[in-house]
């Protein structure tokens, strides 16, 4: 590795630590918001700007060109609804956008669906499957208002990561659910667009002598678990997916992010990115992460999108509960013998059945 590259990587490591520290502080503040007054909420995102951004993206003539990522994630989330062997009488899709989840929801799963979005244009631009009753409701994810104990299911795909006060949003969702109601949601995780982030940081360090976080802060899996638990959800299931999309260059990636309404225009700070910095970032991106096609020789760049999927239940007296501490019959140190233990337990049960 050359001396120049060594210096650059050292700078990247330092800037990454700075960004991680800022992100950690951001979510530490967010996680504590439930214990503070609203005046202490950190308003990272401008909700009015985000509303205009979504409306502009949805009203574009080629809006469907940029739906590929959200459609894929929406389909996967709808499939998780299908995995729950229950028909929900009343469900709400919060931040439904262009119906990336709702259009895949089967009438076998949901009887009535409330479509919620910040913009009327989104609500009028799609239909759900036949057999599902539909209501449309203008709603900002910052203020989720439903009748208490009225919903059986709440779904949300790629909208809650733009909320300033996640603890409050989760608490409002919990209050709106009936007992044993379900929250199913997907948000972008902390490793999303790490290639773009590091390339921009290196470019700014080289061209400007400093850096600014040009990518929105994303939450981590552990943060989501803590926030859901503090809100009051039980029986949590949290996992992650990674979707890697290839682009010709950094510029096509940034253009698609704008078309998806996922660009950073809603951040409450100056975001000017100098032209020379953009070209430097494109070159660094290609150098560090670019992959050449063995047949054509053309170089493309990967962009990683980490998806955090979450499932939480509102408490109900009949829900399964963990056994009391100390009542376990198998030690964790014997897990390597699990097959033998299961066979022994099954044999004992068969012997008891024969005696009876």
From TrEMBL:
GO terms for molecular function: methyltransferase activity. Keywords: Methyltransferase, Transferase. It comes from the Eukaryota. GO terms for cellular component: mitochondrion. InterPro entries: Malonyl-ACP_OMT, SAM-dependent_MTases_sf. SUPFAM superfamilies: S-adenosyl-L-methionine-dependent methyltransferases (SSF53335). This is NADH dehydrogenase [ubiquinone] 1 alpha subcomplex assembly factor 5.
């Amino acid at each position: 590795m050359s001396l120049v590259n060594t210096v650059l990587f050292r700078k990247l490591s330092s800037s990454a630590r700075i960004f991680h520290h800022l992100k950690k502080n951001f979510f530490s503040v967010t996680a504590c918001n439930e214990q503070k007054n609203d005046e202490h909420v950190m308003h990272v995102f401008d909700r009015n700007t985000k509303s205009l951004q979504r409306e502009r993206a949805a009203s574009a003539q080629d809006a469907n060109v940029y739906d590929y990522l959200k459609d894929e994630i929406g389909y996967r989330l709808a499939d998780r609804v299908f995995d729950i062997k229950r028909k929900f009488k009343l469900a709400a899709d919060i931040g439904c956008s262009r119906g990336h989840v709702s259009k895949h929801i089967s009438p076998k799963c949901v009887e009535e669906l409330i479509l919620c979005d910040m913009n009327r244009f989104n609500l009028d631009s799609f239909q759900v499957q036949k057999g599902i009753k539909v209501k449309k409701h203008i709603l900002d994810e910052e203020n989720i208002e439903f009748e208490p104990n009225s919903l059986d299911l709440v779904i949300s795909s790629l909208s809650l990561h733009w909320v300033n006060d996640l603890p409050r949003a989760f608490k409002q969702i919990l209050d709106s659910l009936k007992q044993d109601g379900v929250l199913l949601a997907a948000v972008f995780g902390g490793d999303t667009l790490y290639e773009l982030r590091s390339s921009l940081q290196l470019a700014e360090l080289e061209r400007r002598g400093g850096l600014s976080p040009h990518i929105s802060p994303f939450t981590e899996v552990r943060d989501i678990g803590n926030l859901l638990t503090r809100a009051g959800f039980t029986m949590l299931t949290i996992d992650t997916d990674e979707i890697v999309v290839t682009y010709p260059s950094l510029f096509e990636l940034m253009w698609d992010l704008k078309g998806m309404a996922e660009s950073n225009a809603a951040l409450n700070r100056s975001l000017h990115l100098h032209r020379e910095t953009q070209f430097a970032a494109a070159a660094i991106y290609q150098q560090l992460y670019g992959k050449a096609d063995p047949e054509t020789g053309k170089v493309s760049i990967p962009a990683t999108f980490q998806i955090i999927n979450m499932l939480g239940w509102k408490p109900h007296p009949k829900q399964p509960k963990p056994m009391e501490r100390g009542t376990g019959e198998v030690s964790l140190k014997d897990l390597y013998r699990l097959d033998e233990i299961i066979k022994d337990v099954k044999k004992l049960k068969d012997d008891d059945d024969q005696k009876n």
